[in-house]
Amino acid sequence: MPSLKSPCSAPSPQAPSKKRFRFKSSKYQAQESPLSSNTGSEETPEISTEKQGSTPDIFNPNHGSISIPDLKLFHHYVTEAYRTLADQSMDRNRVWQTHLPQWGFSSPSIFHLILALSALHLGYLQPELRDQYVMQADSHFTFGIRSVTAVLSKLDPENCQLIYMSAVLICLVYFGHGPRLGEYLVFGETGKAEWLVLMRGVRSILHAHRSKIFTGVLEPQPDPSIQGVGPLLQDELCQQKYHVEKVRQLIDSQHLDVDTHIMYAGAIDNLLEMFEEAYAFRSAGKDGICVLHVVVGWIYRRPEEFINLLEAKDPLAMVVLAHWCMLLKFMRSSWLMVGWDEHVIRGIQTSLRADYRGWISWPVSFIQS
């Protein structure tokens, strides 16, 4: 089976093959539209698309037909929704606007996942129609998950960028669905938290092909607007650091083995670095989706031993996590993250032993203010 070419490579020109798409009625439509009522007749409107090169069957599904509601989702993504998923001033290669939709024509996972995100964004913009859009999003999310699962075993340097971006989209869809009862990103009331499982998937993909993934259009670019923490935010940052250092003192007072103490020290050190970076972004007028990599990056870098303590609701680990939650507040301006900071801190409050709750009074008050 031939492998999917990397999206950043330039395939040699070949004779284009045409694939016919037929409008079909959608299960999401309350009633049949004039366009869809003729489905199956010779007069049915059709769209032809052209794709270059050949791809494996697993990335080349027989779409057969496409509904008008799905076309509307695609249109909304390429005109509006993509702007909400990344810092557009830094997306100089137009990954989210141009490349992802193009990759979606050969990668069913990306195609369905951008439609899922588009539906969720429309549900956010039109709350009276949210249930309808969530239904559409769930349908596309299911197909997207299946497609990613099918190709994970075939991860290689040629398709790793597409699979990585599919995994990122899955995590964004999870955020866009909004907080779930009993699920607090990195721990849950019962079993493993779904988002943590997704995050581990992203980490395994990066571990296997990091050097290849971040090349071409996905190569990271420095942000020249980030020039350190401005004077207006210095005092607030100092307050945050003071309270994080108090947590370090709490950890130092415990009788921990050497390895565990080193693990906690690393979590505190990196958390302080993330606060510094987040406040530098805020000083440049950037928050919301612009700091997603800062906020999620701290969780991404935590070793399995620390994650296991969170899943077990270890009080020390939960106190550290509560202070990380303050970073989530800086993402409130993104529709993807509305309510997540308050949701996770409430979950920590509920799960934390009473004798440790005083240690999270600062993050609780900061998030609720």
Automatic annotation (TrEMBL):
Biased composition (Polar residues): 28-61
A Pfam family: Fungal_trans_2
Coiled-coil ranges from the UniProt annotation: none
Matching InterPro entries: Fun_TF, Zn2-C6_fungal_TF
Chain spans, region Disordered: 1-61
Residue ranges with Low complexity bias: 1-16
Name of the molecule in the record: Uncharacterized protein
